[in-house]
Amino acid sequence: MGRLAFAAFAGGTTFVALGAYCLAQGRSLHIKINPADGKYTIAMPGAKSDALRAGAAVEVDGHWLHASDYPRHAVEQSQVQGYLGNATDWQVTYSGSSEHPDLIYHLRAYTSEPYGDIQVTVRNTTGKAIHIEGIRSLEATDGQILNLGGAAEDDRVLSDSWSEDRPGMTIHDLADAKQRMHRAVGSQLIYNRSSHESLFIGALTSERFLTVLRLHVANSSGNATGLAGYEVDSTGTTELQMENSVEDSPAGDQVQLNLSVAPGAEISSERVLFGLSQDYHQQLDTYGSLIRQIHHARTSAPPP
Fold this sequence. Notes:
By secondary structure, the protein is mainly beta. The relative contact order is 0.17. It contains two helices and 21 strands. 7% of the residues lie in helices and 45% in strands. It has one domain: Distorted Sandwich (Beta-galactosidase, Chain A, domain 5), CATH 2.70.98.
């Protein structure tokens, strides 16, 4: 994973039934799962609208499969222990197509912390070998994309980099996007200067894949800047390498990720943390603490 940067930017849980939704109201984070389409939403408590609405997806044999490609979306709920204590776990299964593998995500909402995490599993139920190019734990493509309680043009973005200085880490205004995209590797923080709300997303593991986050900026309309989409992928390194070490290499050296999954087998994405609050510094600090805890960082050991 890249560096974790700190930078300046200018109670209990209850469960209720709400129509077709499964809803958790935590101390600081509201999460809803909609069984009708298999998508999830997150929001600040008391907010008039959701901050984010997203689903899962997978790229199989060169073709992306989305929530809408599956006729069935089943939801199961249980109580579990996670990295930040007690949590509600939703297992959401996209299924019902003999031609497509099942797609299952586990989303955990923490009882007393303003965080959740998500991991997506692809289960090959097709009866033949398939090839995975990417697993997407967050795909937001419709509506407002991201609502942090203020105008989108007031959003600022801090993206972790592919390496220590590729590219150099800088806080950007939303409109300051290279090729209309803020891309991060590992983690990304989006902060709204008027509402002071921030969304943080960061990979908790890096066992098999690279975690690439892409915040797409829409074409400007007058002086306004909006968002066109947001995605978080467990994928390979070629996208980043094509702008660095293999930029001038022949096409044969620009090899895309391609993992074979046998019939009946499964493969999982990296686990990704997300948080929504009005304390971006605490979000960064929590993420750093979790990385130290999960990966047993030797922060107190003397230098070699």
